[in-house]
Design goal:
The chain has 230 residues and is mainly alpha-helical. It contains ten helices and five strands.
């Protein structure tokens, strides 16, 4: 996107691609804007777009600037054809599948989430790589280090749980444990890193209608799509 006067990112209205967002990002929201996003396993970005995840980490790129620029218009047609979130999800899946079929197939570098809790040297041995080779290939495929991936996985698990429930007394501790944190304080540090506020304050701001957090509020149709795919 382009920079707004306050330093935020302005939505250009064109389909864009972004790797992992590792820090809070302010977006200039234009009246009447609909925001449609699809989460992709980052290791498939080279197959679909010819771009490594590390190239687009914290840096949105319009599809017009990728090898899929000629197909961007068809994606706009898919999203403009309906206002139903389910149709958006189905249409994006069909578009991505068609793009994958048209591109030359290659074997992606994939590490399942479960082994990420292991020591990197152990993971490297499982894949027949040195630790340094593993780190380089993982960074290119996923756009961040293994350590940062662990951090983001814990945060996204906790965030999903918070958005689906209204935790009562002791609920934050339970969510922290289920998400893989050492304790609630550990979770709070990550929320401050990713959202600039602790989880309780974050949820109060979401529930209170904070305009900067509108992307975390869903009507029932959108909730069904978001949490069914999470």
């Amino acid at each position: 996107g382009t920079a707004a006067p306050d330093g935020a990112s302005r939505c250009s209205g064109l389909p864009s691609l972004c790797g992992p967002l590792t820090t809070p990002r302010r977006i200039h929201w234009l009246p009447g804007t609909s925001f449609v996003t699809a989460h992709l396993a980052p290791e498939y970005l080279p197959l679909l777009f010819g771009i490594d995840a590390a190239t687009v980490a914290d840096a949105p790129v319009e599809l017009d600037n990728t090898p899929l620029r000629l197909e961007a218009a068809s994606l706009i047609d898919v999203l403009s054809d309906s206002r139903d979130p389910r149709h958006w999800a189905q249409g994006i899946c069909r578009w991505l599948h068609g793009s994958l079929v048209r591109r030359q197939r290659a074997e992606p570098f994939v590490i399942q989430p479960a082994p990420l809790g292991c020591d990197p040297a152990c993971i490297a041995r499982q894949y027949g790589l040195s630790t340094r080779q593993l780190e380089r290939r993982y960074l290119a495929a996923y756009g961040q280090s293994i350590r940062d991936s662990r951090k983001m996985q814990r945060y996204t698990r906790a965030l999903a749980a918070l958005l689906q429930t209204q935790p009562g007394h002791g609920g934050l501790t339970r969510i922290a444990m289920d998400a893989g944190y050492h304790d609630q304080a550990h979770m709070i540090r990550d929320f401050v890193h990713f959202t600039a506020m602790p989880p309780k304050t974050f949820m109060q701001a979401v529930a209170g209608g904070d305009a900067d957090l509108r992307l975390y509020r869903y009507d029932q149709a959108c909730r069904d799509v978001v949490f069914a795919s999470g």
